[in-house]
Specification:
The chain has 5 helices and 5 strands. The protein is α/β, with parallel strands linked by helices. A 5-stranded mixed beta sheet has the order 2-1-3-5-4, with helices on both faces.
Length: about 150
Amino acid sequence: MIGIGNTMRRDDGAGLAVAEAVRAARPEIEVLTTGGDGAALLDAWAGARRVVVIDAARSGRPPGSIQRFDAAASALPRVMSSASTHVFGLADAVELARALGALPAGLIVYAVEGADFTAGEGLSPQLMAAVPGVADLVCAELDRDDA
């Protein structure tokens, strides 16, 4: 699994917090983290058959809401492009990998709706409350992949 985020932009660190929760709960799961740069993502999932990615989102849903996307089946919604603080982010990396034939056969993206993306450390209360549930969803997703 890959957690994406920036701990210096409050709720943008949600993917990293979920990654840490998964690592603590299930040390046997390979957990990678990145700031969300698209090139780093291409490297992180290179050669992988199945990947779960967690990132923060800004779609207008209630903070802490969770969305699941099958990025191997179709393009990520436009809102995933606007959530990135990078010029070349997750949605761009997915489409470039698709065009290059380098997309994992299974690529699931969990987006956690953020409330506060201002400069500073620490997740909002809504995101702190959502992290354990998202970690559970990721573990269940990976367990299904092993079956």
